[in-house]
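Here is a complete protein record:
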Amino acid sequence: MASDRPVILDGGLSNALEDRGHDLSDALWSARLLRDAPAEIAAVHRAYYEAGAMVATTASYQASVAGFERAGVSRAEAERLIGDSVRIARAVCDEQPGRLVAASVGPYGAMLADGSEYRGRYGVSPSVLRDFHGPRLELLVDAGPDLLAIETIPDVDEAEVLVTLLGELDFPAWFSYSIAGSRTRAGQPLTEAFAVAAVEQVVAVGINCCTPDDVQHAVETAVAVTGRPAVAYPNSGESWNAGDRHWTGSAADSTSLAPGWLAAGARYIGGCCRVGPAAIRRLAAAIG
């Protein structure tokens, strides 16, 4: 999938849905709309494709059987909804020849909805993480995406479980950590983290859900450690206050930084939280 030309990713799903008037303040976040408003998710995928994105990232970041069951959804419906995240994106993808669907796999901490996805080190055993991730990975792969987007992973402990599962599934994925500066959110060196993710099934290694200023060094490190293309899709530059559940700080357009990421070896480039279709359109014009 990688070449010398960049693959333009989409931007944040949740902010685009909020801009369309949806309240995503509950624990299911954007995954709630898989049940309540699937056509709205399709509309956001379509908007990103029309803005120049080549990949739609599914609404499964926060979707898990355990999370849905906690919200009163039956196991059978939860499993169907997780698969629907891929099917919704695929239906829109089929309208846009040459586009791809990446099935989002968020961290265990996203299901907890307590901010621990930004800290990692959850205090649970690898077997708990395996039991959480394994079934949802199988549901997503069975629904037929082009690849998996293992994203916003805060620590090496969780990464080790996920790459083992990827090897067992033998399915392509990109693998991206959430970072702060030159370390994972849990404080581990990026050299260590990227080395763990460099398995056969991973087509690109990198970062997301970070500030744009953190990307250049991370891309350079990922390429040096893994010899693979890098994936990079930072936030707008604002910071999420998990306690008060709101964004702080000022947004910054990272379009001017993206050519440097491309030159350093990033081939999958897009946006994460608070980055919308207009920003992806500028990005596609700048480097696409």
Observations:
- The chain has twelve helices and eleven strands.
- Residues 75-93 form the longest helix (19 residues).
